[in-house]
Amino acid sequence: MDKACSDGHDDGFVGVFDSGLGGISVLRCLTAELPHEDFVFFGDSAHNPYGDKSNEQILGYSRSIVEDMVAEGAKAIVIACNTATSVAAATLRAERPDLPILGVEPALKPATEHDPHRRILVMATPVTLKLDKFHRLAEEYGSDSEVIAVPCVGLAHRIEQGELEAPDLHELLVDLVGQYRDKVDSVVLGCTHYPFVVRQIREVLGDVPFFDGGEGTARHLHEVLREHGLLTCSMGEGSVTFRSSLNEPGVLDRYQRFFDMEL
């Protein structure tokens, strides 16, 4: 049973951010797990994609976003971006030890627990796949599997544009992973943009199970808020507010459309 709130620290919101709209796939899991909480989602679409930025740039963007959210009353932060988690999470936690900061990571563990798991395809950004964190995950959980890491250059940015049924998106997926059709046992989606095109990826790869970190992150957030006495006492429906660094017409409408999208 969730710990009752009594100290008044549950009044803030949970801040969620990503390099663009991809983190909305995680936000959907968070709101399903914690329907009474208030969430503010910030998409850094002006700097999308993070996957081709330097570590220094990614850390700078992430730090600025967290600072703004804390100033506005965030009680916890979810980094809904595999790349930003890999680059910035440890530093941000060290800088703000009193603030719960959660991240996402490629769901290699559940993929290796699924049978069969002889060959696991990991789709992620080049930055995520180059960092030590991914290699440690692959060594820890992939020792009994062949982990095939595919740097999906351009895919997150293409999803960010919308029009997910357009032929050029299918062509991009064929170029990236078409050679693995019927040759892998499962797919790990190592970027939070990718769950929005699972059906399109399946059309290219064949009918295999997909794994991403959204649901695990949601359960972890629930546990952390409970442990810190930060769960809301409200039994009403929580709010979801969308914000973006990209000041263009239709951006927030696109965020809402992805939040409401049937997958």
Structure notes:
The protein has 263 residues and is an alpha/beta fold. 43% of the residues lie in helices and 16% in strands. The strands form two sheets. It has a five-stranded parallel sheet with strand order 4-3-1-2-9, sandwiched between helices. Helix 1 crosses helix 10, helix 2 packs across helix 3 and helix 8 crosses helix 9.
Features:
single chain; 263 residues; alpha/beta; five-stranded parallel β-sheet; four-stranded parallel β-sheet; globular
The side-by-side strand order for the widest beta sheet comes to: 4-3-1-2-9
Q: How would you spell out the order of helices and strands?
A: EHEHEHEHEHHEHHEHEHEH
Strand content range: 15-25%
Major sheet size, sense and barrel closure: 5 strands, parallel
How large is the count of helical segments? 11
- Using only C-alpha atoms, the radius of gyration works out to 18 Å
Structural class given helices, strands, pairing?
alpha/beta
Q: Please, what is the average pLDDT?
A: 92
- The end-to-end distance, rounded to whole angstroms, is 31 Å
Helical coverage, percent range: 40-55%
Count the E strands.
9
Overall shape: it is globular
Low-confidence stretches are none
Quick structural gist:
This protein has 263 residues and is α/β, with parallel strands linked by helices. The protein is 43% helix and 16% strand.
